[in-house]
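Possible regression after last week's pipeline update?

I re-ran a chain I had predicted before the update to compare outputs. Posting the input and the new output here so someone can diff against the archived version. Not blocking, just want to make sure nothing changed silently.
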Amino acid sequence: MHRTRHWIGTASVALFLLPGAAFAEVCDKIRPGWNNIHGPVSQVDDAVFFFSASPATNLVFVGLISISLLLRNRSLCLFSALVSIVLAAMLAFDWVFHLGGKVTESGVAEGCVVPPYLLTAIFLAIFTVCIFAAFKRRIQV
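New output (post-update):
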């Protein structure tokens, strides 16, 4: 009888210390609408979430890049490149130095957070295109 109580008490403490409920709360805050049933978040899901999180800001960013490339304005292209490289650096810096702390770690453990490899690559590609567009030699005919 005494051993049974000991095992029940140990099992209760172990279940209490499991972080399942904490993970669920973290993922609800980080990724609203994400469900563990669908499996962990992929790089593409992360990019779609990032670009759909604040559509107005992203629309301004895409508009800035589009206008700078269409008008071939060197100043706008350089500004677009600067914004892109700053975003890439912020994503990389946040991931490398764990600025999210326990929240990010909990999200990774649950599967609702992934490393921002695809997002960083997208911003670096935008940076490269804008730099080439800014310094492209204009051919006079």
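Follow-up from reviewer: compared with the archived run. The longest helix spans residues 74-96. Marking as no regression found.
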